[in-house]
Amino acid sequence: xxxxxxxxxxxxxxxxxxxxxxxxxxxxxxxxxxxxxxxxxxxxxxxxxxxxxxxxxxxxxxxxxxxxxxxxxxxxxxxxxxxxxxxxxxxxxxxxxxxxxxxxxxxxxxxxxxxxxxxxxxxxxxxxxxxxxxxxxxxxxxxxxxxxxxxxxxxxxxxxxxxxxxxxxxxxxxxxxxxxxxxxxxxxxxxxxxxxxxxxxxxxx
Length: 205
Hints:
The protein is 37% helix and 24% strand. It is built from two helices and nine strands. It has helices at residues 6-34, 158-203, and strands spanning 52-55, 58-64, 70-77, 90-92, 98-99, 109-112, 115-123, 129-135, 145-150. The strands form two sheets. The protein has a five-stranded antiparallel sheet with strand order 1-9-3-7-6, with no helix packed on it. Strands 2-8-4-5 form a four-stranded antiparallel sheet, with no helix packed on it. The two termini are 20 Å apart. The relative contact order is 0.25.
């Protein structure tokens, strides 16, 4: 009887490697969908798609190049209550005309690196150009920063979707094959190890 464990060991480790590769592929899919979409970076600073950050009170100019909806967030230390503002956030178009900031029915909140960001509104730019954002002070005088981030347009995420459609089935296949290989390799490894010990005992006078 073949008592070498070299083949089963290789099969087991190949199965483990396949399962690890499947997990890594799933992580890549998640990362591809989230790395440039979050309003906050991992350290709590404004994310890569944020086009304007204004400390309250204050004002700033945001360059809008498309007609995509612009989300407005207020950021504050995680664990604190979202601060209120002494007035409305106002937005003025390049023409000077005031643009209505619509308040959402339910705000989305995200937290990263000790900072939380809460959606307080959005506005629809009529044309490209510089839009002025005016932010009032907080009601309790606490520090807060208002961020502007454009929404993802219809085709911006097409690459991520195509990648996910290909990667997810591959990850499932790799995971399934890895589990089967790992289990079967482990069983054979154990059997041959037992057989090798038994054979050694028989040969020992």
